[in-house]
UniProtKB/TrEMBL annotation:
Protein name, entry field: Uncharacterized protein
UniProt-annotated stretches for the region Disordered: 1-81, 109-168, 257-280
Source taxon at top rank: Eukaryota
InterPro entries: Kelch-typ_b-propeller
Comp. bias (Low complexity): 1-24, 36-74, 257-278
Higher taxonomy: Eukaryota, Sar, Stramenopiles, Ochrophyta, Bacillariophyta
Entry-linked PANTHER family: ACYL-COA-BINDING DOMAIN-CONTAINING PROTEIN 5, FIBRONECTIN TYPE-III DOMAIN-CONTAINING PROTEIN
Record field: compositional bias (Polar residues): 140-151
Keywords: Kelch repeat, Repeat
Keyword Repeat in record: yes
Species this protein is from: Odontella aurita
Length: 437
């Protein structure tokens, strides 16, 4: 199947959006586990790491943690459930939609059916109509035009604004109601009642190339009530039909991006994200990572951050090669963290090509990279120790760029099978040897 990393030029035709009973996409670009509970809500944490891994497709990589939905009295909520959420992607017929689907994995397998002696038993997969469509209804043309021409609300306060009692203003209170365009290669994370979507690659069917959004918007969708409605709600009022989906609204914010003071901000080598502005550096697709929840030892406040590594920035060149626009693929090798509350990106580690030289017990010299090389189409997730003391970003595999074909400009790739661990506290990389490699 076509992958953005491969610079696909496949032509995709569109059709009118429909309302099937289950997702029909060929490439679902984000998936995750969201847990609903009758107990009090909590932020996504590593204690639920057994169900914290998001699925990914060949078109993207994404990972996240499980999260409990909003707090409510037990009598007002339906029984506990755990959902896998899939977002985005495309089909051969439709590239213009950004679907959101949920599947109750806590009941994904029914008990074995009654059978005669000697007959094969086993679990029965659930029917395809058990998927819940959480895709918000399309906005009208006026709202769509407004979203295209406005990045932020005119009354939005500054980044360090506080309210009357001195508390920081919640930037999401000033978000625009704008939906994400169709895309692949984005990252999705779930926290509390909300699903967050970051980055991604948009397909230009006219020229057959992938692009990023003009600005690195972050999107948020409240799926809590749709997945865990009041106990008295009628069956079907769970967001799966048009009446339930009408209450779903996307929010959009333009984040800030901060980089270490030593990082240059004027453009130089576009393949190095430290040589461009921070806002341009975070605007990429195919970044992979997960949700990192930590507690500030001084204030005791919980911070939730989406930590991502690598990915793909693309640059389209106007010069025509064999009658088409040429796409230049720029894999990345840095680590960024997006704070879900302050709406701020921070670079945690720049891309590095340094090597470590050590002597072996036999007197030989061993040369090894001190950090993973730039890559895309990799897998990554955040893992926290059982005691909650340490958290790590684990990265495996992917593809690194070898060069470009001199005739048509397409990218030559090499598959990777290395395993790296990034300590989120010390911000240091360690390679873990795997066999076979």
């Amino acid at each position: 199947s076509a992958s953005p990393a491969a610079g696909s030029t496949s032509t995709l035709t569109s059709s009118s959006p429909s309302s099937p009973s289950s997702p029909t996409v060929n490439h679902l670009a984000g998936g995750g586990l969201v847990e609903t509970s009758t107990a009090a809500a909590s932020s996504a944490s590593s204690s639920s790491s057994a169900s914290s891994h998001w699925t990914s497709s060949s078109a993207s990589s994404s990972s996240s943690s499980a999260a409990s939905l909003s707090s409510a009295p037990a009598a007002r909520r339906r029984p506990r459930g755990e959902y896998m959420i899939l977002t985005g992607g495309f089909t051969d017929e439709d590239w213009h939609a950004f679907p959101v689907w949920a599947f109750d994995v806590s009941g994904a397998v029914r008990p074995p059916p009654a059978s005669d002696e000697g007959a094969e038993g086993g679990a029965t997969p659930r029917a395809r109509d058990d998927w819940i469509d959480l895709t918000p209804l399309p906005v009208n043309e006026s709202q769509s035009n407004f979203c295209s021409s406005n990045s932020v609300r005119k009354d939005a306060p500054g980044p360090d604004a506080t309210d009357d009692d001195g508390s920081p203003v919640n930037p999401w209170d000033y978000a625009l109601e704008c939906a994400p365009a169709a895309r692949v290669g984005h990252l999705s994370v779930a926290r509390g009642e909300y699903l967050y979507v970051l980055g991604g690659l948009l397909y230009d069917g006219r020229d057959g190339v992938f692009q990023t959004e003009e600005e690195p918007f972050v999107y948020r969708l409240n799926v809590g009530d749709a997945l865990n409605p009041p106990a008295g709600a009628a069956e079907g009022d769970d967001g799966g039909d048009a009446s339930g989906r009408a209450t779903l609204r996307w929010q959009r914010l333009l984040p800030r991006a901060l980089a270490p003071p030593s990082s240059p901000t004027d453009a130089a080598d576009p393949s190095d994200s430290s040589s461009v502005s921070p806002m341009e550096a975070v605007n990429r697709g195919e970044m992979a990572g997960g949700l990192w929840t930590s507690v500030d030892p001084v204030t005791g406040q919980t911070r939730a951050r989406a930590v991502v590594y690598g990915g793909l920035r693309v640059r389209d060149i106007d010069s025509r090669v064999e009658g088409r626009v040429r796409q230049v693929d720029l894999p990345q090798g840095d680590v960024w963290a997006y704070d879900l509350d302050s709406n701020t990106w921070e670079r945690m580690a720049e891309a590095s090509s340094d090597y470590t030289v050590t002597k072996t017990e036999f007197g030989d010299v061993a040369i090894a990279p001190s950090a993973p090389g730039a890559r895309t189409a990799h897998a990554a997730t955040v893992v926290t120790s059982p005691d909650g003391v340490s958290s790590e970003l684990v990265v495996f595999g992917g593809m690194q760029k070898l060069g470009e074909d001199p005739w048509d400009g397409t990218t030559n790739w090499e598959e990777l099978s290395d395993l790296w661990v990034f300590d989120l506290e010390t911000r240091a990389w360690t390679e873990r040897r795997v066999t076979p490699k």
